[in-house]
Design goal:
Shape: globular
CATH superfamily: MetI-like
Number of strands: 0
CATH topology: MetI-like fold
Low-confidence stretches: none
Helix content: over 70%
Distance between the termini: 61 Å
CATH class: Mainly Alpha
Number of helices: 13
Mean pLDDT: 88
Order of helices and strands: HHHHHHHHHHHHH
Number of domains: 1
Strand content: under 5%
Structural class: mainly alpha
Largest sheet: none
Radius of gyration: 26 Å
Length: 309
């Protein structure tokens, strides 16, 4: 019995030494999270990658899913509709994201300069409300705001003499309407992130800078900018990824219309996969979109975050 116990202790010791059994019990608490990540994140990605190399049509499952190699990728890259949806998404990102950052920076500077703690706390709570609203609800709110008969948008424009507009039936106005709702929802996110960066600036240095120059632009550029760049990098990465996969709010608000005016890339992929029932083509498009998101994130880190470092 003693030899058996000694042998068991030696096996346990060797297992810990080679890392087979983790020394910290925290590892066992990570197992549910790892399992959830594998089921929710890794498995769908591998399945999409597998489907992208096969002909997988839901309307013709009797024919099986034969291997087609890179044919789905070639068809995607030569599809004008795919590039049109990607171009609309890029335009939406390039116009909406700078507006959100500019408005968020303006709000963050106002809150940073206020001397009333209760006002700052109330503003932070109110800024969380749009972010906490789900995308589908934002789309429904947008349909109500831009309704031609009883929408608030036509009421406000009517106060300055502009006749009622059919916002969601006009291609340009529908695109602008989606932009407005996204700006309303995510400008507070930019403001809170940038406000956190401003709070990292040493107060002594900021007070000395205000004594040196009254120009807030010089203080912002020379003193506060290095503290804002890490948060700005996070905003660029997260918001760009969100805009590239933006679906719920657009689909609820406009269904991608009128025509294809608001058919962003995620809406187009959904149409190919669940209306044309071509899962192989949709999977290839999703993989290309993932690669594009990774490349864009790496560019942000290289050119924005490296400057902060």
């Amino acid at each position: 019995m003693a030899s058996t116990a000694t042998h068991a202790r030696r096996r346990a010791k060797s297992a810990r030494y080679f890392g087979i059994v983790p020394r910290s019990p925290a590892f066992w608490f990570l197992i549910p999270a790892i399992a959830a990540l594998a089921i929710i994140g890794v498995y769908p990605l591998l399945l999409a990658l597998y489907n992208s190399f096969h002909q997988y049509k839901l309307a013709d499952l009797a024919s099986g899913t034969p291997w087609v190699g890179v044919d789905n990728y070639i068809a995607t890259l030569t599809d004008p509709s795919f590039w049109g949806a990607l171009g609309r998404t890029a335009l939406f990102l390039c116009v909406t994201l700078p507006i959100e950052i500019a408005l968020g920076l303006f709000a963050a500077l106002l809150l940073h300069r206020t001397d009333l703690p209760w006002m700052r706390a109330a503003a932070r709570v109110s800024l969380v409300i749009p972010m906490a609203t789900t995308y589908a609800v934002v789309g429904l709110i947008g349909r109500l705001i831009f309704n031609r008969q009883f929408g608030v948008a036509n009421y406000l424009t009517g106060l300055i003499g502009i006749p009622p507009q059919d916002w969601l039936a006009d291609p340009t106005l529908a695109f602008v309407s989606v932009m407005i709702m996204d700006i309303w929802q995510w400008t507070p996110f930019c403001a809170l992130i940038l406000l956190a960066g401003l709070s990292m600036v040493p107060k002594e240095a900021e007070e000395a800078a205000r004594l040196e120059t009254p120009k807030w632009s010089m203080i912002l550029w020379h003193l506060q900018r290095p503290y804002l760049l890490p948060g700005l990098t996070a905003i660029l990465i997260l918001r760009s990824a969100d805009m590239l996969k933006m679906f719920d709010a657009v689909f609820t608000m406009t269904r991608g219309g009128p025509g294809a005016a608001t058919e962003f890339i995620s809406v187009y992929i959904q149409r190919v996969g669940f209306r044309l029932f071509d899962q192989g083509m949709a999977s290839a498009q999703a993989i290309i979109l993932l690669i594009l998101t990774i490349v864009l994130s790496r560019l942000y880190i290289r050119f924005v975050y490296r400057e902060a470092a």
